[in-house]
Amino acid sequence: MFFPKSGNRRRSPYRSARSVRPQKEVPTHMVTNWTRNKVCVLLAGVFIFGTTFLVPIMMLEKSMSQEATIPMNSKNHISLNHLFDKTKKMEKIIETKSYSVLKKAKQALRKGGHFGIPEDEVNNRDPFELHDNEDHEAHPEEIEESLARGVVGLPMSKTPALIGARPGHIACEVNVDDMAYWNDPQGTRDQEFQSPFASSEPESHYITFEPDPGGWNNIRMSTEVFFVMAAATGRTLVLPPKAPMYLLGTGAAHARSFGNFYPLSNPHLKKRVNVITMKEFVEKEGKSIMNLSDEELEQLLPIAEMCLHQKNSPIICENLYKVLREVGMQPDMHGAHSCYIFDKDKFEGKEISDDVQKRVDRFCGEKRTATFYDQSLHTPKLIHWNADAPTHRVLNHFYTFFYFTDPKIDNYFKRFVRDFMHYTDEIYCAAGKIVHALNDEGKGWSSLHVRRGDLQYKEVKISAEEWYNNTKEIWNDGEILFIATDERNKTFFDPIKEHHEVRFLDDYWDSANLGEMDSYFLGMVDTIVASHGRAFAGTWFSTFTGYINRMRGYLGHSTKTMWYSWLPRKYAVREWTYPEGNYPAREWPIGWVAIDGDEVIEHENEKADSIPDPPDPNEITIEAIEKVPASVAIKNIAMSDLKSDEGFADKPVARGVAGRPMSETPALKGAKRGKIACDVNVDSVAYWNDPTGEKDQNFESPFRAKGEEKFLTFTLDRGGWNNVRMSMEIIFIIAAATGRTLVLPPKEPLYRLRADAKNVHRGFADFFDLSTPEFAKRLNTISMEDFIKMEGGEHGRLPIPEETRQNVTNSAHHCDKRKMSTAYCGYIDDYLATAGYVPDMSAKKSCAVFDVDKFNGKELSSASEESVAKFCGDRERYYFTEELQENTLIHINAGQKELRLLTHFYDFVHFTDPAIDNYYKRFIRDFLHYNDQIYCAAGKIVKALQKEATDRGFSVDEEGAGGFSAMHIRRGELQYQKVKIPAIEWYENTKDLWEPNEIMYIATDERNATWFDDMAEHLELRFLDDYFEFAQLGEMDPNYFGMIDTIIASRGRAFVGTFFSTFSGYINRLRGYHGMSMMDSWHSWLPRKTKMHEWEDVDHFVFSYEWPTGWVGIDGDVVPSKDVF
């Protein structure tokens, strides 16, 4: 991580601009209150001291006086040893009692009451004031529980290595032991461990190494590798000379050794690996192993103590390393291309088993070469590793570079790094003070690592606006965000500050005594603090972020609380993936989960199941697609094998159970089925009519605006795609009904639709065909650019103020969500909200009503009143009237939280005339469908599924559906945990619905293919990626993939979805448009399994599922009812 420099002598080079967040001062009225608290604690301390020490001493004195008068042969004789035994027992009891007393006193102080300060004063405490940890020394009955940390721990019965271990301690003037993730001492078994690969002569076999040339976290990673290597092989590890490290200062003043960062003097560590300095090594072995002359030895000794990288320096490091490269053995390995295998059989010259070979192959993958540790690597006196050279760099995690084929040994060395390779107490003490200060604010807090400096991966260096939009659902309302960053300009974070209070390291400069530390420790303090947040989002490719994730893992946090800000890799750390590919770009849970056990466990424990996920719209990215297993059977299907839909468009337009006889559907007279432009005829996947019937073509809304052209503008919903689509359908209906020209927003980055990094700006025309003549007859649309030119000029009806004209004009074609952008979307939004009339209506509290009488200023008829009451229920009624139509511009601010239109159009907009109500339901069905490119790809996959199905003996129905069945399995960050059930439960809950040997198509956001294994034992599964090449998906906009998934799933014989998912809801609506019975739709969650089999007249706000009034009988002129359902 890059540490920015500052000319301010008082500040560290790492500090952010202090002027951005001034320090708060402690109110003077708190002094008296806290003095009272100190007195209370002092009294508690006196009680504890007295009971712990004075009482035993008094008993001892009494016994000694009795001893002087009681005969030695008396039965009542009390020996001094016996008294000491009794005193020790008493001390144990008192220790427990006093622990409890102190704990209760501290809790009382924090809660207020007669023991402490009043509650209102507690709430006014300075958020940056430091307080001692509530719970002090843990007691034996608590130790075992504390050793099994969070979701990574195991029961003590499965962790014999922990017997005798205790949680680590941090030397600090404030108790911050809860920061320590390590054990000290380790368990008895680990203390007695002897590596089977250890040299019998550790004092004469060495490892020397040259540090990685990169930044600190690269150096740290390779150092962990060398410590494990030395400990495993029993060699003495020789530390490099003190030297400046990249980005940690230059020159002799900044020369550092690893002892500056790690507690290498720990006696327990010294028992595991012998560590000496380079100077000690040169003094001892200079004339033997290094073969130096007296003169050479004299020259190298100063360099061995401290060296510099400047070429002209008399103590240049290269002079020493050149000698070591000549005399030492360099294993032919590289961190990215090699894997280092330790197997006892291979070490002893035996053959390895097939099982071991299989596990080694899995660990190394296809692109790495396995090097087994054998006698050829064991024998040399000196192994010297030139990690500074590109050919031998070890930029990898120790646990993805080393593989010990015995899981007990593998886990031992993972514990070795966890328990010994942690930062010093000084660093942890400062971090602990900050974490406690954040905790004491009482608002809850999460953390981010925003890498901005010299990171070479430009695609992940995104704006603060993008940071927030990409992660906003992760954070709890009102919680503080601690930001670890190398960004010096703190105004960069203003877009985040609009939504959350933020804290930076420099906010704690005085309270954590950061000015007294080595300034280059501050990045490490930042790392530790960030690892303790409730949730964490980091920067992809950053090893700084990676180490935070590993620390969180060591602390027992679930990977379900960890994300990345870059959308293509947002969920990478949350997916349980066996290490592969770009190993150092991230850390992998296998490095910390269940490492206290004796076997490899590739999942977190059951505690992780109770951790809720934030909401997440359904989208499928290229990365997700490429990870699902491919089906061999599909490779045998050619495009020429697909059954064409020739003549399908000439079929009657009344579809299945949703259709009515032509005598009951006059609107369909003259209508024909829609067609899809595609190189394969896939017209059967089209559910719409094109052209629509003559009645619809000639329809004119009675609510149309009169006179000059009127406009309707809107802002997009800030949620995921299905949220955007739902509010868009409402807005299109309002525009069509009022006869207003709909102004399409400028293209902008849509939330979660950024899989195509080269083209992030999107408009509705990218997904829907809004250019057809038939659509233009129903609704006139223009671009924001044209609207601005037409009405925003000085001669227009809605002139833009001169001071904002340039900004608004810049944002009219496409806009960004970054405030610093010259094309900021907010410029357009502010102008429209000021120039237009903004209706005070939202999906949550309102219903929009169109009634002809009300529109013309009359009272509602009794029939209309009954209709409105039945539709709106307790919601506020928002009537569209002729008076409202007088406004030149109506602006629907759906992007504002209080005005969101997050519901289905048929749950929000109500026309009291059933014929008009059904007309607008047909309007959505017939015009707002995805474009032909999306349907063409989906249609090909449906046809391929049906080709494979017919070969199995299954048939396709007369509407071109079936042959296979489908599921939508929502796994991402759906907040409704009760419906996120395991794969085997999915199968058990639905197995009665499937035909034997039937193909099952699964639309899903689950990226871990192995999750489906329990289903694959019973069902023949297919996924979108199975057809990646067949349907040429790689040539398409990757943002289309979720939409393609929706269409395919809608054509299955039977369908099971995820209750509460709008993705599943839309699939059911598409099935309804096709005329498919809802009796063939289910949900996997048993309490709502048959929800779609019920008729429902909804009179309240609902968005998480759909219901048949949106599609059943909508070609008629009467209100859809249960009778026709």
TrEMBL record:
Membrane-crossing segments per the record: 39-60
Entry keyword annotation includes Transferase: yes
Domain of life: Eukaryota
Keywords for this protein: Carbohydrate metabolism, Fucose metabolism, Membrane, Transferase, Transmembrane, Transmembrane helix
Molecular function GO labels: transferase activity
InterPro entries: GDP-Fuc_O-FucTrfase
Region (Disordered): 1-23
Any Pfam family: O-FucT
Biological process annotations from GO: fucose metabolic process
PANTHER family documented for this protein: OS07G0633600 PROTEIN, OS07G0641000 PROTEIN
Name of the protein this chain belongs to: O-fucosyltransferase family protein
Species per Swiss-Prot/TrEMBL record: Cylindrotheca closterium
Lineage, highest ranks first: Eukaryota, Sar, Stramenopiles, Ochrophyta, Bacillariophyta
